[in-house]
Amino acid sequence: MTSDHEDIEIKKENQTIAEDEIEKDENEVDEDLKETSKITSLKSLGPFIAGKENSRNTVYLSDVPDVCKDKPCMLGVDEAGRGPVLGPMVYGISYCPLDSKKALEDLGCADSKQLTEEKRDVIFNDINTKDYANSCIGWAVEIISPNTISTSMYRRSKCSLNEVSMDSAMGLIQQAIDAGINIAEVYVDTVGPPEKYQEKLLKRFPNFKITVAKKADSTYPIVSAASICAKVTRDHALKVWKFPEGLVIKDNAFGSGYPGDPVTKRFLAEHIDLVFGFPRLVRFSWSTAENALADKAYNMEFDEPDTEKPKYAGTKLTKFFKGTTKSGEVIREESRFFKQRHLGNVMDF
Length: 349
Description:
Blueprint: H1 4-35, H2 42-50, E1 58-61, H3 67-70, E2 73-80, E3 89-97, H4 101-107, H5 117-129, H6 131-134, E4 138-144, H7 146-154, H8 161-178, E5 183-189, H9 194-204, E6 209-213, H10 221-239, H11 262-270, H12 287-296, E7 322-326, E8 329-333, H13 336-340
Parallel strand pairs: 2-5, 5-6
Antiparallel strand pairs: 1-4, 2-3, 3-4, 7-8
Helix pairs in contact: 2-10, 5-10
């Protein structure tokens, strides 16, 4: 039996302990955020990616070497993961002063597709940790989520994969400009006809010498460096992929993501939801995914009387939303059904 005074003291003590625990937890979160807010080596790449929302795009710009702000620089652009049905596409840029070609040669920069995964990892780590490299070479990547790719290609005013690619490339170049990099020359591995792409880039960036070419990653070392950064980032994004749908795939064993990979084919066949299709790892807009859904998934129809149809009725799953009217417009609150399954809307443009 305790007195009222003792009860008050115990409550105060418990409150103090609880506050200390909350402060401790907040500090731990802050430390985690600090650990994943910057990529300083290959080791920090995985935690950085794992800490991001993988249904959205993520952009990262490395620290800019001071020399890249003073001296005229070359900048290379390339991508990784354009063809796979699984996982993100990653665009990368790399830049260094025009007189720093030897640093690229010493790193062993070559077409990332011709290098082993282990060799690419070594080069990426050296770019970030070796003094002769990180003192003059910088880079940036954009991780373009499968969700973004699919919704871009499915929206009413369709956006092709080439357009998604070009927008990402130009966005990264602009970020380099905004970061103060003294860009003089730009080298790009093309998507589509090189002439049209080069014309588009020159219109956006008229003050640069711009070269767009096929297989630029095997011709220009600065493009090779960008290719390596993009490829390593994509590889690690797949390794640390977290399924918001709750799937547990041992060692993320879903293969390379390319449609011809038997492991990828098996993953697609075994993870079809008959109503909602695939997890967000999958690019729904790929014919491989569309064909798999056509063979197995239910055909869904949502019929409503014309008088009850909202403004944008049609293919939307409107019956799962609660509607309220304000100023004559239908406002829908996302239902728990969608939240629990991590489902999002395809926006109409």
